[in-house]
Amino acid sequence: MTHKPQIDNNFKSRLNEPQVWFVLFVFFAVLPLVIYYHTFKIFLENGFERSRSSMVQTYQRELNSFGSKSTNRYIFLQQFQGFRDAIRRSYAEKEQHPALIGNLLKELPETASIILWDNRARIIPSSLIRNDKIASDSTEKLVDIIINAFDDYSTGINLQTLHQIKKFEQQNAGFFAEMIPLLGRGFPVSQTLTSPNKVIGNYMSTAEVFFYWDFFNNKDNALGGFLVVIPIKNLSPVFGLKQVLNRELGTTPENVFGFFDQTTGETAVSYAPLLPVARKIINRFENSLANPLFVDDWVLFVQPHPDSSAASIFSLFSTVSLRESFNNDLRSAQLLLVILTLAATFIFYHYFKLANTSGLSLRQKMAALFFMCMQLPLSILIFLGIRFSISQSILLNREAETRLFELVKKVDADTLNYYRSINEWLKSVKKLPEMVNLDKPRLRETFFKFVRNDQLESFYLTGANGEIEFDIDNLAGDNASNRLFIKELGMRILAYHSGEVNAAPAMNPLDDGLFELVTRRTGVMHQVLWLGSDIRKFVFSDVVTTADGRVFASIAVLSKTELDRRYLRQAVNNNAQLNPDTELFFIKEDDIAEFFPKLSTVFRANLLSLIAATNYTNDIASDLLEDELEPMLAAVGRGVQARDFLIGARSNWNQIMETIHLTYMLVGIGLFFSLAASLVLITVLIKEFLAPVSILSNGARAISNGDLELDLPVFAKDELGEL
Q1: Checking phi first, is residue 184 left (phi over 0); if not, alpha (psi -120 to 50) or beta?
Q2: Coil, helix or strand for 448?
Q3: Where does the pLDDT of residue 425 fall: very low under 50, low under 70, confident under 90, or very high at 90 and above?
Q4: Sign of CA dihedral 568, 570, 575, 576
């Protein structure tokens, strides 16, 4: 019995129905295009947020730098230095001096007094003292005291130890009491007289005036000098800031600096047309907790003024350029989406009409099936890849910043271990054969090497009577001014060591702090502020017994800056060997031209804003900075232990993002091979499917022509093979 297959005479192709084509159009054309557009929009938004965040950081650092320069003390210092340099340049043209003095007084408060003297310490008539209670002879005596005191200090004769400082202030206490109407109460006499070219006084100190003095040549009285006194009372903390805002050159209609006073409501900006905008945004800031505050395309960043609790400085800048760039790219993407959607609409409509007229060939149907089936998963894959790369890049950036932060902190903290190793080395010095035998020629040779290698600055051996048995001052520089200090210190060390504390030289109790620290704890490096200066040094004391039984106090003085420099160089070199992916560097805080290792000019220029930020916040700051070849993620912080240096670390940004780039590459390779394999597969399938159909078509045509003997080959054991 032969089985007769059932034939559905009612079968009709669904491709002739418009709703089928509409569903195919939505799912395999519109939906993938929308996903592509949304993916690109996410990519643009991420770029916009990163650019805006970078801009906020940049202006925040500029505000930090601006804030440090907005104090009256800093602004007055710039004005005084400019006046000094102008007088020096035109020293021979005396007729120009009154005009220069007048210009300076115009910039200063009306209460300011200026005293000028010539190279013989005689008061110049152009001087202006805004206090009738000060006699001319008192002014001349003040100038004499300044010149003589600084002379003694710079040559090491006086004002070197606390005892000398106290004695000097006691001797001149009566005179400075008479000068209270000009100098005010709490005037820091010794600090002022030994500190030319510095503005003494601030709103947080007990001093009642800003005081500045200097020689016109910044060295000695060969050209004379001048001093300026400005009473602090009733002087607005933003007096100088207003002048700075009036001549701030870096401002544009999209970037301004300013200040506002919450007490008086006063607001000032460096670009006057933006004052209404600034006031409006500041009003919103006062009712908000956000800082920075984003209002439309404006960003307001606020910091308290260093000298005032009521006034705040701010940076107001616009991100409209970023927004316009983002909108332009987004409009381009929208336009492309519309064009592609219209093109897809035309193509689908064309094939819909073709299916209802002449029909679609099998080749066309299978090619369309492949193309449509690939679009949706491909768009989803790209969308997920972009989202993953964005989130992963944020994580990688945070991890890299954390590593850099930890490295900077570790390098600074390990400075203490380096100090301990130096301390152990100093303790071993007394065991040197030349020290035990007091072989002075060999001692000098040995310590000359120490000095030449910056291991020591000074070394002394003193006896119980204060005699200096051995010293290397002539090798380490001119330290003769410290001999009195060394003698007293050596006598105190030996007296305490022998138990005869009362035999130590009588010293004022105010001086005992430093002496007690060094004498009672021998064998330990003590970090001290060197007397009469703001230089930090290490003082190491010990007791040495020679082979013949004599006992000496050994005193070693080391420059903390040099020790830190040597340690940081070692740390940089060690890190380069152990961790080549991250580079350490350090910069001298007060001289950014000194750095190690070599940094490119481009990187150093971009590093300035980061340095300004870390100097202001006393914390580690990081940012992505451009270098000559590749961008670098850098972190910089002020040393806590190595306080004279800025310690930094940087990593190659492309290496940090290497996994992201690898992800992009793998996704791209995967897409390429998937498409290639799909093309090969569809080609094979079309060939495997269309070849038997073509043979069947030819056979059917032959049968219709009456040829019943045609033998058709069987290609496969499937439905087509059976047919």
Answers
A1: left
A2: helix
A3: very high
A4: positive
Strands 293-295 and 298-304: antiparallel
Provide the β-strand partners of residue 267: 260
Identify the CA nearest to 416 among candidates 636, 563, 222, 214: 563
What average pLDDT does range 140-144 have in this prediction? Answer: 92
Which whole-number Å values give the CA distances from 704 to 80, 695, 698, 707, in the listed order?
A: 113, 14, 10, 7
What letter does residue 709 receive in the DSSP assignment?
Answer: -
3-state class (DSSP) for residue 537: strand
Q: How far apart are CA 688 and CA 679, in angstroms?
A: 14
Closest alpha carbon to 189 in 155, 142, 234: 142
- Mean per-residue pLDDT over the chain, rounded: 82
Residue 417, CB-side half-sphere exposure with 13 Å CA sphere: 8
Residue 410 has φ and ψ, to the nearest 5°, of: -65, -45
Q: Which long-range contacts (CB under 8 A, 24 or more apart) does 661-666 make?
A: 663/385, 663/388, 663/389, 663/392, 664/385, 664/389
> For residue 11, what are the contacts with CB-CB under 8 A and spacing of at least 6?
none
Strand order in the sheet with 225-231: 113-117, 225-231, 209-215
Question: What's the rounded Cα separation, in Å, for the pair 321 and 251?
Answer: 16
Q: Where are the alpha helices (DSSP H) in 529-587?
A: 560-578
What is the pLDDT at residue 537?
86
Neighbours of 653 (CB within 10 A): 20
Give the integer Cα–Cα distance in Å for 284 and 296.
Answer: 12
**By the 8 A CB rule, do 643 and 625 touch?**
no
**So what's the pLDDT on residue 475?**
36
Alpha carbon dihedral 232, 236, 239, 242, in 10-degree steps, equals 170
Q: Are 667 and 381 in contact (CB under 8 A)?
A: yes
CA 276-282-288 angle, to 5 degrees, is 150
480 secondary structure, DSSP code? G
Beta strands in 239-310 (DSSP E): 255-261, 267-269, 293-295, 298-304
Instruction: Please report, as a single letter, which amino acid is at residue 309.
Output: S
First CA to last CA distance, the chain: 19
Query: Encoding tokens for residue 224?
Result: 């004379």
Instruction: Tell me the sheet residues that pair with 210.
Output: 230
- Is pTM beyond 0.85? Reply is no
Alpha-carbon span 28 to 17, nearest angstrom: 17
122's tokens:
């005689």
Token code pair at residue 213:
């003095």
Residues 110 and 113: their CA atoms lie apart, in Å, by 9
List, for residues 559-583, the tens digit of each pLDDT value: 898 899 999 999 999 998 888 888 9
> Out of 289-298, 325-334, 611-620, which region has the weakest mean confidence (pLDDT)?
611-620
Read off the pLDDT of residues 255-301 as tens digits, 9 standing for 90 and up.
889 999 888 888 999 888 889 999 999 999 988 888 889 998 899 98
Query: What contacts 516, CB < 8 A, 6 or more positions away?
Result: none
- Give me the mean pLDDT over the 448-462 stretch: 85
pLDDT in tens, 697-718: 777 777 777 766 667 666 666 6
